Each structure stands twice: as structure tokens, then as C-alpha cells.
Amino acid sequence: MTDWPELEKKYYMRTFEHIRLPVTLVRGEGARVWDDQGKEYLDFFAGLAVNSLGNCHPVVIEAVTEQVRTLIQTSNQFHTVPQLQLAELLVENSCLDRVFFCNSGGEATEGAVKLARRYGHIHLKGAYEVITTSDSFHGRTLAMTAASGQLKLQEPYTPLPSGFVNVKYNDINEIKAATTEKTCAVMLEPVQAEGGVNVPDDNYLRKVRRWCDEEGILLILDEVQTGIGRLGALFGYELYGVEPDILALAKGLGGGVAVGAFLAKERASVFQPGDHGSTFGGNPLACAAAAAVIRFILDRDIVGHVREVGQYLVEGLAGLQRKHPSITQIRGRGLLIAIQFDRDIAQALLLACLEKGLLTNRVRPNALRLIPPLIIGRENVDRAIAILDEALSGIIS
Ligand SMILES: Cc1ncc(COP(=O)(O)O)c(C=O)c1O
To answer: What is the pLDDT, as a whole number, of residue 1?
Structure first.
């Protein structure tokens, strides 16, 4: 049998060495995946919050198969049906008016910031600065590395593009103090995902929205991870009673197929012909997959299911917390949940769960993240909690 990790050592850049697990996945179905040894895992990772309908969902397979036989790529010099159908679906089911498609989360946030800068040039006397927050994560392009509030990501790449001011998350006064005549936008995640699953105060986003309105600047919400049902609403902003001017999406949008998007209100849709572009962005294959995902989520009330099963998961984890005092907090919304511990055991616990057939994610040295597919059922939640219980007992005995 081929030793795939050995091939990685020889051929692949070393970027994933610190996170790569000793598992080679070869197949997936629903909430289960299998490795090359035939071992089965319960998937509470979902391709990093991507496989919204689970692995290889029949509607995604059908949409992709049909499209791959019909038309895969054309370039944006031509109209294509899946692109415009997806555009209509997203606009008609959100508070935004226009969309631009790209291929990843980092491209979506980068495009959102370009649009805000364009708005600044046109309407705010050339204002270009974007205020972002500590512990945020907006992607890996150079500009989004500068935008993300995590020094460890920035240090290897200095000097970084300018135009970002980073302030403390969940504190409106910090945003107010950082706003100047150079500011064109504030960019936030409704719940910070990569930064540790940090849920802000209920009225934080409303205060930020009000401030942006008072100052005439734009609010960009980065819903690359929280969007498309993950929090128990189609878009996270619905939970906080605000509407963004610009919204970035990716991850769950394609149900496993790479696709990103940013949307904007009409007044913020200021791109002129030639201002932005993409070769692959909006291609028929990715758009057909995403349209199938959105239709399924809407038709089957998957968002209602996420609320219900997310609550069930949190209750189960609360039971686990009563049994294991090393758990200090359960936090998150919908199916974006973190378990916080009083010590740095997340990696050991992740490995113990892996051994017992459960995929999870270490979001901090002392916090584990659970991001199952949105279609996860109660019986799989019970199984995951039983494995976590056993794994935790083995580590802290
Ligand atoms: C909130 C948020 N924004 C942007 C990104 C970047 O997305 P991608 O890795 O698809 O470029 C991520 C990825 O984790 C994310 O969670």
C-alpha cells in the first residue's frame, strides 16, 4: 500500500505539517468518512465547515454530474445559466442586491474590501482604511493577512499591505476611536470562527451598524464560515438584527465544491466595468453545485434543523461538562460550537477522538471546535458525545 504521508514529506510544501493528522481520507458519505485502511469516522469537521449537506450529498452529486456533462467553464465573457440562477437565489434570499462570484473565502473578503475602497474613492473623498478586529480571520492573501487580527499570521510576511486598522473585538468604543476621515468600512465576523468561536454581545453588531450609519461608512460582514445556515439562520446577520452593506460567503455555499461570493446593497455596488474580474469565478460547475445546495437548504428548512440539533448538541455538551469539570465553557451558535477546557488538552483530545473514530478540530490549544454537516442527526450527536466522554475520561483520569 502507498505510504501517502511519506509522499507528502517529499513533494508537498511544509505548510500543513503542524496540523496534518496521520490519516488519509479516501471516501465520504453523509456524516461519515473513511480512510485508506477502511476505518470509518463520524465527521464533526465537515471539510472545515464546508460540506454543509454532508459528504457527497446526492443533490450535489446530481447537480455536478449533470453540469460536468453539459458545460464546465466559459469565462465571464459569456452569460451562463447556473451563474445567474445562483445570483438570483442569493439576492432573493438575502438583504443584498448584487453579487460577484469567486472561488474561495479569501477572494470573497479581498473582493469585499476592494469594493469598499472603491466606495471610499467615489463617496468618501478617497477614504480607504478598513477597521478589523483582534482574533479575526479573513483569509490568506497578503491583504487579508494584513486584515486578519492575528500577529502570528502576519509576522512572516512583513511589510504587509497598508490600509487596515485592527481593534479589540466586541467593543464598539474601540471602533469609534479608530474611525477617521480615512475610514471607508468596518469588517467583522458575526461570530469569530478561526479565532476561537467568539460570540459577541447580542447588541454589538447593532451598535456597529448604527456607528457605520452615523459615519457614512460601510459594514462588511465576513460570513465565509457563519453563512449558509451554519449559525441556525441562512445568514448570521439575521440573528443580530442588522443588515450589512457587503457580505462575504464561501465554505458551505458549494456543499464541498470550491465557490466564493460577495454581495452588496445597491448603493455599495459601485464597481464599474473592468474594476474587478475572475477567470474561474462564477463558473457553471461551481454555481450549479451551490444553487443545488441553497435550494435544498431552503426547501428542507435545514436552517430550522440546525437550530434544533444545535440546541440538542449544546444540551448534550452541558451534560458532558457536568461530568468533566475540566470543561469550563460551551460556546457558539447553531452548529459552530467550541468546548473550552481549563488546560491545553485540545490536541490530545482530538487525537483520542480520532483514534475512536470521530473527526473534530482544535481551534485553540485549550478549545475543541465541532462543525458537523448541517444535516447531522440526533443519533450522531449522541455518538459524538459518547466518544468525547470516553476520550476525555482517558486523558484526564
Ligand atoms: C471567516 C473566514 N473568512 C475567510 C476565510 C478564508 O477562506 P478560504 O480559506 O476559503 O480562503 C475563512 C477560512 O477559514 C474564514 O473562516
So the answer is: 80
Cis, peptide link before residue 159, omega less than 30° from 0: yes
**d(CA 193, ligand 1 centre) in Å:** 9
Q: What is the pTM of this model?
A: 0.98
> Residue 207: which of 230, 181, 174 has the closest Cα?
174
Q: How far apart are CA 282 and CA 292, in angstroms?
A: 14
Report the residue among 50, 101, 140, 251 best suited for mutation to probe ligand 1: largest number of ligand atoms under 8 A from its CB. 251
Tell me the per-residue pLDDT of 13-22, one tens digit each, with 9 for 90 and over: 999 999 999 9
pLDDT digits (tens, 9 = 90+) for 277-313: 999 999 999 999 999 999 999 999 999 999 999 999 9
The one-letter amino acid at 205: L
pLDDT tens-digit readout, 88-101:
999 999 999 999 99
Which pLDDT does position 397 carry in this prediction? 73
Q: Mark out the alpha helices in 73-127 (DSSP H runs).
A: 81-92, 105-123
Tell me the three cell numbers of residue 184.
471607508
Q: How far is the CA of 221 from the centre of ligand 1 (A)?
A: 12
Which atom of ligand 1 is closest in space to residue 251's alpha carbon?
A: 10
| The three cell numbers locating residue 54 | 454532508
Pocket of ligand 1 (CB under 6 A): 104-106, 109, 137-140, 189, 193-194, 222, 224-225, 250
The residue nearest atom 10 of ligand 1, judged by CA position, is 105
- For the chain, how far is it from start to end, CA to CA, in angstroms? 37
Q: How far is the CA of 358 from the centre of ligand 1 (A)?
A: 23
For residue 49, the CA-to-ligand 1 centroid distance in Å is 10
Pairing mode of beta strands 183-188, 218-222? parallel
C-alpha dihedral, 150 to 155 to 159 to 160, nearest 10°: -20
